Automatic annotation (TrEMBL):
Residues annotated as domain TraG P-loop: 107-451
Keywords on record: Plasmid
Domain of life: Bacteria
InterPro entries linked: P-loop_NTPase (IPR027417), P-loop_TraG (IPR043964), T4SS_component (IPR051162)
Methyltransferase among keywords: no
PANTHER family linked to this entry: AAA+ ATPASE DOMAIN-CONTAINING PROTEIN, UNCHARACTERIZED PROTEIN YJGR-RELATED
Coiled-coil portions: none
KW Flavoprotein (keyword) present: no
Entry protein name: DUF87 domain-containing protein
Lineage per the UniProt record: Bacteria, Bacillati, Bacillota, Bacilli, Bacillales
Length: 494
């Protein structure tokens, strides 16, 4: 038991304001179950009790339990526990700045899932995190469905890779890169090639690509063929092995008195695989359907943009944006582009520079799954994203998916796995229809749900490995212009 006296001092610049403040306090206090006793004729004792010495001269003690005392404080968290990392907002209650270190030792991964209804402020929040991360030497690659990160990247020294039929930037999803890694035992920097992982990914890519045409499930014989042919391509036809030298024509060597540099070998591309499927279909009619479904993915066809040798130069820029907005809105090509860009980022960005902190953002992550819920294409897109999150996590990176349709993820086994396996979850304003799923996946209490239904634009509920904080962010005018790009562009266009 404790003896408790709560003392409140009211101050104001004028008598009118003072009386108004006292009226509000009496009204609000009464409504919340507090009975206020004013310290009439006890001004001196009152003043000494609150300042400067803080010894209670007024008395009026209540007997309370410790838990009651704790409950009197309406704080969710007076201060978030991370001491380092970029500024990501201000605690909604205490107004304390909130710093967030995705690589904090108490977190098992740096992955992040951001969800909220359209217009709730997901992209705004993500842009703010990206911008503030630069000062902390965190490099970010962004799969940008809407083309809304380009201005932010350019104004912060980043680069924009536009994906389009007229662009000179070419991405080949089949390309495999040697990977830099640090040997756990010796601490030495080494190189390797993860062929098995790549083969698995290309099998999934092909299943996804085939599923974009028609709604039928692939048959077991077709899946077995896809698997066999990709192994054949990487291991036998191109002769790639786990040894990084296998990706080069020649070793770096002295020829006479000259140092001869290595040249990279040509990489497999989708039509190399397709050619083998065509040959198989000539001898076995079971594969004719697969052949026809995959034709769209080859050069010159409607989804053939990525049947090429890569030509993109990624510099050491702090932000690299892959802008997909030039591809037709909601087309299969843009969906395929989202997949290919993420695959490319894993090969060329995540597999390099192991000591650099790296983040990969997929905004509008639901797009590849949208309108395909419950179909094979939706399933394979979710598998790919889930795998991508694991591959990035495995290499110490931070993968971040932002989605306005929480339920698309939650209702899919792989989508739910992305949410569950992300140590950091950001919830912005939510739709009441998603209440039951939100409750199940995040273990939210009813009052927390209500709070999310009523959330203001830009208000964020952070769940960082179980630590809950509500935050907001008030940008400077210069920042607001950058985070609000879409709005500004729309105005300019009008
Ligand atoms: N913290 C904030 N401060 C001020 N304005 C904000 C804030 N967050 C969001 N907004 C305003 O809300 C608009 C919509 O935000 P944003 O584009 O981030 O929504 P979204 O959740 O990404 O929506 P969508 O799912 O449609 O992409 C912003 O352009 C901006 O004007
Ligand atoms: Mg957005």
């Amino acid at each position: 038991m404790y003896y408790l006296t709560v003392l409140v001092t009211v101050s104001a610049d004028s008598l009118v304001e003072l009386e108004r403040a006292c009226t509000i306090l009496e009204r609000e206090g009464g409504g919340r179950g507090f009975q206020l006793i004013d310290a009439a004729y006890l001004q001196q004792e009152g003043l000494l009790s609150v300042a400067p010495i803080g010894i209670n001269k007024l008395r009026y003690p209540m007997e309370v339990f410790g838990s009651f005392l704790a409950n009197m404080f309406p704080f969710v968290s007076s201060q978030f526990s991370h001491r380092r990392g970029p500024l990501v907002g201000f605690d909604l209650v205490s107004k304390a700045p909130m710093f967030y270190d995705a690589w904090h030792k108490d977190l098992s991964n740096a992955n992040m899932f951001v969800s909220g209804v359209s217009g709730s402020g997901k992209s705004y929040t993500v842009k703010m995190i990206v911008a503030h991360s630069i000062l902390h030497d965190i490099q970010t690659a962004i799969v940008d469905w809407e083309g809304e990160y380009a201005d932010l990247a350019r104004s912060m020294g980043g680069i924009v890779v536009t994906i389009d039929y007229n662009s000179t930037n070419l991405m080949n999803p089949c390309e495999i890169e040697e990977e830099d890694y640090i040997d756990e035992h010796t601490g030495e920097k080494k190189k390797r090639v993860d062929i098995n992982e790549k083969i698995d990914e290309m099998v999934n890519f092909t299943k996804y690509a085939a599923s974009l045409t028609g709604t039928e499930q692939l048959k077991a014989a077709e899946i077995a063929l896809i698997d066999r042919l990709w192994k054949q391509i990487y291991r036998d036809e191109f002769g790639f092995t786990e040894d990084a030298n296998s990706l080069y024509e020649t070793r770096r060597q002295m020829v006479g008195d000259k140092l001869q540099m290595r040249t990279r070998r040509k990489q497999p591309q989708f039509s190399d695989f397709y050619k083998l499927v065509v040959e198989e279909a000539e001898n076995d009619t079971r594969f004719i359907d697969l052949r026809d479904r995959l034709k769209r993915i080859t050069a010159g066809e409607s989804l053939g943009l990525f049947d090429c040798q890569s030509k993109v130069s990624l510099s050491e820029a702090p932000i690299i944006v892959f802008d997909l907005s030039k591809l037709h809105e909601n087309s299969d090509l843009r969906k395929l582009g989202q997949y290919v860009a993420l695959e490319y980022i894993i090969e060329s960005f995540i597999k390099k520079n192991p000591s650099q902190k790296k983040r990969v953002i997929v905004d509008e992550a639901q797009k590849a799954l949208e309108n395909r819920e419950g179909t094979p294409a939706g399933e394979y897109a979710a598998v790919f994203l889930d795998n991508a999150f694991t591959r990035i996590r495995k290499r110490g990176g931070s993968a971040c998916a932002a989605s306005q349709q929480f339920s698309i993820f939650a209702s899919n086994k792989y989508g739910a796995s992305i949410i569950r396996n992300s140590d950091t979850k950001l919830l912005l304003k939510q739709n009441e229809l998603d209440g039951p799923m939100l409750k199940e996946l995040f273990g939210l209490a009813d009052h927390e749900l209500q709070r999310l239904y009523d959330a203001q634009q830009g208000e964020v509920r952070w769940d960082v490995n179980g630590e809950i904080v509500y935050s907001y962010y008030k940008a400077t005018p210069w920042e607001h212009k950058l985070f609000n790009t879409r709005h500004v562009q729309a105005e300019e266009g009008a």
